[in-house]
Specification:
By secondary structure, this protein is α+β, with helices and mostly antiparallel strands. The strands form four sheets. The chain has a four-stranded antiparallel β-sheet with strand order 7-8-9-10, with no helix packed on it. The protein has four helices and eleven strands; from the N terminus they run βββαββββββββααα.
């Protein structure tokens, strides 16, 4: 058949018979992904694949060097992998390891960058040298869009947390004015990420003679893992 340039895509028309004409479009990204042999380039794992081969899978291995965790006195180090957040554990002496899920990704290959979640670690954008300038530009743009979306989500989450904390602070002051100090202590403990059911937080017995004494209001007694991301409350 004849290949006809059409805007930002290519149209290939193939006549299978006198009464049947099959047409299909290939986007510029897909056209760039297709190599000389008619196979496709996966923009996730960067392998070449045949779209008709259903047995071919896109597999991205974990980067175990991104592990963060500890063994807590056991024979196993347990934690997470920074590449994708998977749970990971390995034995301190033997070459035994377990990851859940087993791979960063396992599924179908794709030529569409919007199908991929790039992490700049195990899943990277296409390079100009290895994949071509068109695929490099397309995947770079998608990665930028994803980073902007993550930034917006973080900003929205932080704003939501601050709004919730402001509401809790106001409620704490209301409870204090009503003389409901135990409930105020419980609410403040919950706001700081502490256990509001700790008997020492909720005891009416004040060992130091301080009317409003509680673990949640003494900064020296607040554990390092409690509080907001920036250390403010």
């Amino acid at each position: 058949g004849d290949a006809i340039s059409c805007g930002f895509s290519f149209m290939i028309v193939t006549a299978a018979s006198n009464n049947y004409v099959e047409t299909f479009r290939i986007t510029t990204v897909e056209a760039s992904a297709r190599d000389k042999e008619g196979e496709l380039h996966c923009v996730r794992c960067h392998d070449v694949f045949d779209a008709n081969d259903k047995r071919s899978k896109c597999i991205v291995e974990h980067d175990t060097e991104t592990f963060e965790g500890s063994r807590n006195g056991t024979e196993w180090y347990t934690g997470t992998l920074g590449c994708c957040g998977a749970s990971y554990r390995f034995h301190r002496h033997y070459s035994e390891e377990r990851a859940d899920p087993k791979y960063c990704f396992k599924g179908d290959h794709t030529t569409d960058p919007s199908d991929v979640r790039y992490n700049n670690c195990t899943v990277k954008i296409c390079t100009k040298e290895g994949c071509g300038p068109d695929l490099h530009d397309a995947t770079k743009k998608e990665y930028g869009n994803q980073q902007e979306a993550k930034k917006r989500a973080r900003t929205a989450k932080k704003a939501s947390r601050e709004k919730e904390k402001a509401s809790m602070r106001a409620r704490i002051e209301e409870l204090k004015k009503e003389g409901r100090k135990r409930e105020a202590r419980r609410l403040r403990a919950a706001m700081l990420g502490m256990d509001p059911d700790d008997p020492e937080l909720n005891s009416d017995v004040d060992p130091d003679g301080c009317e409003e004494f509680d673990y949640a209001s003494d900064s020296s007694l607040v554990p390092p893992w409690a509080g907001s991301d920036d250390g403010s409350y």
